[in-house]
Amino acid sequence: MIHIVIPVFNRKHFTRECLLSLRKQSNTSFSVIVVDDGSTDGTADMLREEFPEVKVLFGDGGLFWTASVNLGIKDALQHGAEYVMTLNNDLEAAPDFIENTYKWMKEKPEAIIGALEMDAATREPAFGGEIIDFKLNKVRHLLQELPKEQQKGIHQVSQLPGRGLLIPRAVFEKIGLLDQDNFPHYVADYDFTHTALRNGFELYCNYDAKIYTYPEESGERKNRQSKSLKNFYNHLFDIKGGGNLRDFTRFTLKNCPGPYIPYYLANGYARRIFGYMLK
């Protein structure tokens, strides 16, 4: 059985829709752990009253994404989970999402497998995995390269986000949990998948397992929509800033091959600083 871990902080309307979409799955062989990190909008009451089948763990508001996910993962592993999936609350799963996850999990039982992200508004594919080239400082978006007729099945990638990320127990046993000390909120998922890749685990994006996301609702997207000096500072230095320079530096030093680090850092700093102003 897959154990799904969902970290939440407020925005209970998203959590409700996410859990309702899981209730509609054609394959119900999974359990759900929600980690509520100090929500103040009635999330806990809603979970207790509307979703009694969901296990809820609580934080005090200081866990952020990575520690919340780790708390859920540890609980799942302690209860014998062979596969853990991390899932954000601001998305909905297609009815055959779990069914198609199992389909390819059986083909690649030792691999980490991500999901195809669809834009909830347009119903069009939005993200299908990435291949990073540290030498050229370039990220290839696989979805942009694949013809429509090939956008199915699984495709090998080199990094994946934590939205719908299926992780075998063997990965945790070899490399441990996500790095909550260095990456408390963002980047931990990418760092984790890079670490797994270096340790011999394959990464795939499953184009048959679809999740519907709301990109305009992300904190970083809203930060960019309302530009100000304060939001610019938050973008670069806040723990939830999408361009956090500390996180980027730590990620680079940990994952980029040594000879390419200076150029990769310089290019990345420039993109984060000037990109905020231009986009």
Tell me the overall shape. Answer: globular
Number of helices: 11
CATH-assigned fold name of the largest domain: Spore Coat Polysaccharide Biosynthesis Protein SpsA, Chain A
Portion in beta strands: 15-25%
Q: Gyration radius, to the nearest Å?
A: 18 Å
Characterise the protein shown here:
Helices cover 41% and strands 23% of the residues. With 279 residues, the protein is of the alpha/beta class. Strand 8 and strand 9 form a beta hairpin. The N and C termini lie far apart (42 Å). The mean pLDDT is 94. It folds into 2 domains: 2-217, Spore Coat Polysaccharide Biosynthesis Protein SpsA, Chain A (Alpha-Beta Complex); 220-278, no CATH class. It is built from 11 helices and 12 strands. Helix 10 runs antiparallel to helix 11. It has a 5-stranded mixed β-sheet, sandwiched between helices. Strands 5, 6, 7, 10 and 12 form a 5-stranded mixed β-sheet that branches. It has a two-stranded antiparallel ribbon with strand order 8-9. It has helices at 12-23, 43-50, 64-78, 97-107, 142-145, 169-175, 188-198, 219-225, 229-237, 245-255, 261-278, and strands at 2-8, 30-37, 55-59, 83-86, 91-93, 112-119, 125-127, 130-133, 138-141, 154-156, 165-168, 203-213.
